[in-house]
Records
---
Amino acid sequence: MTHAVSRHAALTSLALAIAAPSAFAQATPDTYDPVVVTASRYPQHLSEVLSDTLTISSEDISRSGASSVVDLLQKQRGIEVARNGGPGTSASVFMRGANSNQNIVLVDGVRIGSSTLGTANFSALPLSSIDHIEIVYGPASTMYGADAIGGVIQIFTKKGDGPVQLSGSVGYGSDNTRQVEAHVSGATGGANSFSYALSAGKEKSDGYSASKLGASSFTYNPDKDGYDKESVSGQIGYQMAKGHQVGLAFMNSKLDAQYDAGPGYDARSNQKLENISVFTRNEFTPNWTSELRYAEARDKSGDDSAAASWGKSQIDTKQTDLSWQNDIRFGRDNLQLLASYRDEDVTSSSTPEVTGSRNTKSFAASYNLVRGAHLLSVSGRRDDSSAFGKHNTGSVAYGYRFTNALRATASYGTSFRAPTFNELYYPGYGLASNKPERARNAEVGVRYDDGASLLSASYYHNKVTDLLVNTTPCPDPTFTGTFGCAYNVNKALLEGITIAGARKFGALNVTGNIDLQDPRDETKDKQLVRRAKRHANFAADYTVGAWTGGAEWQLSGKRFENAANTTTLGGYGLVNLYGTYQVNRDWSVLARWNNIADKNYELARFYATPGSNFFVGLRYGMK
């Protein structure tokens, strides 16, 4: 591994040497500096955020022409995906090589996901409701508790502001894919202002076969596996007086998707996401802001097809969270004190069934300091779970700003992942004695951003212990199952370098990112399943008058389908083309051609991926 890291460092130095002259030539005193909230749980300029953070703006989403949240995330640095078929099937998102259950997903501050699987249902998330996304890489357990080993993805739905705004779109694509969406938003002025936003969308597609020829006779079925997704989301806010707000946010999404469960079975899954939160935010003094929030998130996963070989089943997760956050400012410094109570309830009609509940009481504190060019962040947290007891995490980070645009950072943090209900209680697999996975991450980074040029490089070294894996035979003498069990036996090392850059040359925009990593199971000395040592994305677009045209190049090295690293998933490269035409101020047309070379590749063994496909859409938005 030492030689691998040396090669990575050499490549980083080379990339910096090549890009730095042109980047520094663009330096200006007015640095592009958006406000983000996920890294520290309060609004903060990106130039003062010490965590490795990425924002995907509403303009980025619109320009991308992505058809799903999974497709959008796949193009971001530090992220890989795996999917068992088309857009409606189950998907995994890996951040910095971490497992999909080692990441946290939030929607407007509400944590979502299944407590039995430990993962969020990305396929059921409606892209049409999303305003922007923030991604925080690396450990974030001191901010958000269990499971933030690889990072945090927070999705923000559309919010009302200003005069009444109407927007919408319709689209059609390959596999008889149809999409329609509509939005309305606005706000009233004055001391007692009222804001509102409502979004609704529907997607439907005939799809293609989820499995491929070569799959086991148990799963293969050469039929089309389509999906039908409906969603609605909204936000309401009321300012009672200056500095005093109450609000409500919700999102409901329903996904009815077909999948393959063997010849002759029309297998269907029915997924529902239901989130709601209410809050009151009060600025009691000029330097003290307090927020009290109550949230509920439901993840309902069922198989409604009586024709499925194993019959019907239903597994539901309900998470409730009550939090009280206080931010106290001392000049440019910020002290944050947080208390929260989270409850998880699982009900099941499957056989064997997994049911139960657990709760976690948490207390956290952080201090962010700004002293001229020096930035410092220190945080600590204590989680007390009814299932696995007390767990402490902490982090410290330091940054130095050489100029308004150039900054270097270094950090160290601990995190953990709580065992899922399946890993604790599933009959013949779980063990109630299983402990949380623990991780220790150290990283350094450099970032240059002046609004015209962006260059960043990060090196991370994340050591995970007590990794929960399926172990056969089960080492626990009390285990009575026939097969293996979930057991804290392995160690993993998530190490790598991420390089990203963007540059504007007048009407030409160029972006790119490269990940050189080695996500490894150290106990077995094997590469972690479905994760490549190298993956990258490059894109360029050019605008002439009302026309904008662009191209993307997605690259991934080989991966392994099994833990023994004996079954290989080949590397691939995909080329996509897209274009937009602004008909007038409010109307535009989008066209997209994905995988123009009709590349045959796999994200999961014997599961199909889309060949050459197209999508065209008409959009309306008041400006």
---
Amino acid sequence: MSVNNQIKDVTDRIIKRSEKTRRIYLDRMDAQIRRGVHRSALSCGNLAHGFAACAPAEKEKLSDDITPNIGIITAYNDMLSAHQPYKDYPDLIKEAAREMNATAQVAGGVPSMCDGVTQGQPGMDLSLFSRDVIAMSAAIGLSHNMFDAAMYLGICDKIVPGLVIAALTFGHIPAVFVPAGPMPTGLPNDEKARIRQLYAEGKVGRDELLQAESDSYHSPGTCTFYGTANTNQMLMEIMGLHIPGSSFVNPGTPMRTALTKEAARRALAITALGNEFTPVGQVIDEKAIVNGMIGLHATGGSTNHTIHLIAMAAAAGIQITWQDMSDLSDATPLLARVYPNGMADVNHFHAAGGMGFMIDQLLNDGALHEDVKTIWGSGLHVYAQEPKLDGDKIHFVSAPKTTGNDKVLAGTDAAFAKTGGLKLLKGNLGQSVIKISAVKEEHRFVEAPAKVFHSQDEMQDAFKKGDLEQDMIAVVRFSGPKAIGMPELHKLTPPLGILQGRGYKVALVTDGRMSGASGKIPAAIHLTPEAVDGGPIAKIKDGDMLRLDAEKGTLEFLGDQAEFDARPLATQDLSSSHHGLGRELFAGMRALVSSADKGANALGEIF
């Protein structure tokens, strides 16, 4: 199988662009492999500290160099539904390791915050930076040099990208990512959206809203809409870091338990002590990253990954751009309709054939690189299958060749759209990205006067006062990574949706962030340069005519360009957003962070 020419051309230019940094990365990993990760590198005192808490039998195994030891990095906490199921995973992994005469240790924990809890709250200003804190936390856990492989337990928005960055930093050892799965289906997504809009209009109260939200997010497991968390799981599978078919199996089921133990067995099978050594630095190469981007487009996934994939790739010495993503979107059919790009949820997607069906379709269509290395073996075709349970044993069968629900998951011959719907917008205001897979065609072109706000709260207040009853392009600035940490701005979706429903032409332009939960409103997001970096967005005034054309890929100021260029930059006192709820601790990251199109990286230059 070979990819089509459009995808090959993008892959080739990524390989060429990344030649120097990728070589530096691989040389570093090769040197570390030669040095070894075996415990003989530790002094007796080092090693004694490393296994002091272990049982005698485990100490005996850890004393030699021939027994593999797994380091577990966990994002467990019992407040967040997606991560609560991880409580018992270390015991399952240790049990599987003992059965293979091996050992496993919890190497460390990483923070896991939930954007659903912090949405519209001060804590959201820490969300994006938590990705890099997670990467550093995982690195500390693995720095003890006790481990032949690592297993990463994480699900949600910044957690998986942070864990991937850490895994690639330790790219000389294998990495297996272990999902916990989505909660069962709750309140239908269209009903949840209806109640949210009624609340925004003041037609229902807080009690009704809370009941609807509680009926939607109701049990352990990941939220079931197709936001960043579930996009993460898709990425880990299509990039070869999950057990095939494991991404969307519900928590607390026999299959989920069996897959977790299978993941541990696989981690042990691919260490340097066996015959299938598969260090993660070799799994995640340019072709795997392209496959990830193809999966993002084919499923209509989270726009957060226009930032995260750049940062994840950079950790492996691979340089990708928004232009790469946009070009790949043009070459990728949209095969999934999962909320907010449809009314179904990820459970419906999984039941319709899920990842195995989709990967099989894309491979047969020449839309994925088949010739990649994965934790499950060579070639992506090994992911065109799904697990079945026979007692407590797993076996794998070929994925279905036809969809189980053509309203949720389509074959490439009946795709919902010819492209993935992600576009790069360019023009005299900078560059940004927009996801149009859920935006109706009649809403993809908006030419209207600007209404400028310096925060999402300002815009919310204007809506409540009735000041936005007009055609407009809302400009929300001073929300970028350097300004306040680039929080998500989903509080703006309901009022903009109401205005659109009333017949007004509306759009959003912002240097802030949205995610896979963005929907029917055309939103030019992640605009760079951001306002505090001297970006043109800081010169826009109320009443300026702006044009957003998602089909042509343009975002423009339409007035006198010379007069616009001569304008002073607007300023804003952001000090109130730099303290409280821990935000003062992140001043260094705000000062160091790169622009959104460079991955909003607050870790500094790696290469």
---
Amino acid sequence: MSQLFKNLTRRKSATELLAEHQPDDSIHGSDLIRSLQLKDLIAFGIAAIVGAGIFSTIGNASAAGGPGVSLLFIFTAIACGFSALCYAQFASTIPVSGSAYTYAYASFGELIAWIIGWDLLMEYAIGNIAVAISWSDYFTAVMHGVGLTIPEYLTMDFLSASRGYQAAQEMMAQGQAFAALPDSKQEAYLAWQQAPTIAGIKLVADIPALGITILITYLVYIGIKESKRTANLLVLLKLIVILLVITVGAFYVRTDNWTPFAPNGISGILKGVSAVFFAYIGFDAISTTAEECENPQRDLPRAMIFSLVICTVLYVVLALVLTGMVPFQELAVGDPLAYVFSRVNLDVIAGIVAVSAIVAMASVLLVFQYGQPRIWMTMSRDGLLPGAFSRIHPKYKTPYFATFVTGVVVAVPALFMNLTEVTDLTSIGTLFAFVLVCGGILLLEEKQKVATATHKGFRVPYINGKYVLPLLVLTAVVLLNQFGQAEVAAFFSMSGGWESFQHKIPLLGFVGVTAIFTVLTFIKNLSLIPVLGLLTNLYLMTELGITNWTRFLVWLVLGLVIYFTYGYRNSKLNKAAATAKV
């Protein structure tokens, strides 16, 4: 048993990781091309962060939290900021592709590295599927707006059409007229009814989602330079539009719409945490570009922090403008930016916003389709996945097989399935990665104090948390007692049985972990920033509900089955250890 534990926690040091991934001899021609500069990395970060969050989910978050949702953006940015600093230290120390997977390998060991790698694959895939479907919705709306009608059965996924058709039939059976049905139900009904049938199967598929996925995958396949130029152009266009929205919208702000600032209290603000956090996960993708940066030790940390700061300012200002232009209750729509300008009779601006949303969604898809194959590639290099995933195209210098598989994994589900109900899995997966990256910094500080003390790259500023963390925890308890007595009483209420209690399990776990880290920080003088990063991200995970935790755990169990049937035996560290024994 002790040997098994030792094998599962075998680590790769930063020195080993760097030695393994130094540029190969030019004879082999297998290097990734180092062409990304700081401006390109910042553009990648903004491309991923400024997407669905601004053009879609900010509406529902604002409707739930009112103008106070701007505080949620700040809180989430702080939580991400702690993580970004930890990412920045890892990226500066280990400028190797693989993101949190590589960092976990260096700090926690192989099993945790596999878990986080498997988690990242889920995060990127589901996020990309959701973005492809959202892009299709915006694209279809714009086409209708210019008079180009696409049949409903070619712009909707199979499950949405099937379920919507059944729901519409039930509503009409109860006497409701077809014209009175919600637009989504009408579209689903028409899609199902008009779709051609082959062998008893309705041919309903989201063709625009397939098309954009193929186009983006092709761009990523043929090279980093093409991806870089496209991302930079798309980012420039959408920043111009966002600044236009803020500038024009500011003239239509009515400050009385900001009162009350938090109409539904703290719980209302936190209701949008999943939607808001979904907007911030992009800076994680920057770290996957490490082997294609000209100066990764210097530029990766800067790019992560700069992109996070820029996007936070944009989100906060935009949330205040939106909630100032119209009453917050009206913002529960899929296209809030376009809606507010239609509301004040500026249809031209609304049209520009709708078109720019297509650009924004495409740039998000580009960055994540770029990042995911590099995680497949890095896991394959370590022997945890088949070697085909780490093959580099001799001409394009990209991980071509991994890129192709990524395209298939996103395109096929986006074509037929409605996965919007599991988009929270993207957030919970990213938060889990952030928790482990912050924990990894704490572990490295303990195991390699001499190495980190002499490290010349970026390092998380050390602030002794011995007294600060207990003080922060005590302050939180006092504030809860003062302003959240009703919520606390409801939480500790035993009414409702298991059905009610199961939803409290994540928060109970968070309370326990907070107590443990408060004691450890006091005893061991732990660094405050990684500890705060770990705890704030863990708290955000508790807000995603027991259903998402259950789905997340099922995915991790499936990953463990694959690891123990393939990865454990084929791991390069395992083979090296076996060779050393002979």
---
Amino acid sequence: MTAVSRLSPPYNPNQPLPDPEAVLEVMQRELKRSMGGLVVPGSPRPYFMQYSLRRVHALRLRAAHGALLRSRESTAGQLWADVRVGSHKFDNVFDGGLGDRSEDRESSDWIDAPDDLNLQALQIGLWKLTQIKFDEALEDYYEHRKATVSEYLRDEISSFTRERPVVHKEELHHDPFPRAQWEKTLVELSRRFLDHPEVYDPSITLSAERVHRWLVNSEGTAVVTEDVFIQLGIEGWVLTEDGVYVEGSRQLYLRAVDEVPERAHLERLLADVIEELGALRAADSPGAFIGPALLSGQAASTLFHEALGHRLEGERLIARGESKTFARMRGERILPRGIHVFDDPTLTHCGREPLWGHYRIDDEGVAARRTLLVDDGVLKGFLQSRSPIPGSDHSNGHGRHDGVERPMARMGTFVVEGAPGSGESWDALRNRLIELARAQGRRHGVIIQRVLAGETSTSDYDFQAFKGSLAEVYLVDAQTGKVRRIRDVELIGTPLAALQKITAFGRDRETDQGYCYAESGSIPVSGIAPPILLSELELQQSSTTGYHDPLLPPPFADDGSRGRKGGLRERGKRKKPLN
């Protein structure tokens, strides 16, 4: 019988977690053992391997009507392994890994890390995951070979870049979140919704995550990082006279516990949401619209993210099934003169606002760095992971993933700006908007102040289009200049056409932040942009179904009546103002 040495003693729930260096050493030890031992005669051997471990301490709070609806706190870890067989020139990954769908593979059933980070259990978990990943790599390698015989892979180049090893280690913290304090604040604030029965499904939410990450690879890279992400949101819905539910909301994106604002600030945000819901309830919907549009910096950032940013991700230049919008346009003008675009994950703040897109080392162990994409309107480069693209065989530190899917080039902090001293004031842009509407013979121009979310399609199978869900939008009368709020519309467009319709941009910058979803999963990102004026933008109606009031009012507002009139409003007449 062979003796098996123990890497750590049996688990004691009261014992402290192992030292971060010990975790790193175990990962390096198993990686070295796997690189030397994964051999199948007649088949390619691993030439590169990477392990990563993400341990997330998360708190989720949700309050409404003076009650704590949800309070969940958890800690969980996930393993990830990349096994590449063959060589840097040709291996098991093709199409940049966009078609991997890792969550559907057997290996995704073996990614859980031990909650206590027991070192022996950790090494066993890596061993099991690596064996399955190796089997999948061999299958993919031969599928890749088959594709080279049956298809003409015209955009394929080498499989993997060569990068210098990185050693980067940060201190890890385990301070508890101020859960009781946050719970009390949210519950007390949410009581105000009891005064507004016309607001449906209101909530105040707080989500906090502390992410510890370990990363090692066969080239000698060793990384330990810590990041904190806090999102605070206030939202509610109202039902309009024509039966449409419309949303009002405010969101804060923070990077540290001490950045959570005082109660007075949150009270102002709540008041803003309630006021906005009143405005939305009184607003009308124009149906469809086409004409000149002025977008705030936040709204412009969303447009650039969807119309431009995703199409500059390197894997989309080489993968089958992708439209490759800008693949052959390097050196050509794609934006008006005076506009520059870059992505810089090293930025920590925009003014005083913390940036969610900030990171130091990407998910392939490459240092983050500022990457110039568009210079004076001319396309200069692309976002790159360790998947080479035509004309560039090195990563620029943008390989990112959610810890499950394969990393790919993604945005971090996507910045659009004008040359120093350029750009116009908001009032000047607004005047130009009215002039454009008159020159085009339009009755109105449109001002978009905030966008809730956006989406786009980059597949060559589908239409090349993007869409944005609008939170705050106004029609401007081209003759009188009067402004009125509208609702129930969303912006739509095609990327090349929309970018060519930019006629002017502003001086000030605003941010747009949140989670971005793509093939490598959901990741935190930021965008920074000035206001922009478009000569033409199309809006379409976003809802097609009408609803009626609930048959009964909410219990806290029941005045004893019954039926659809009960307590909320009579038909054709609002009974209770929002403020």
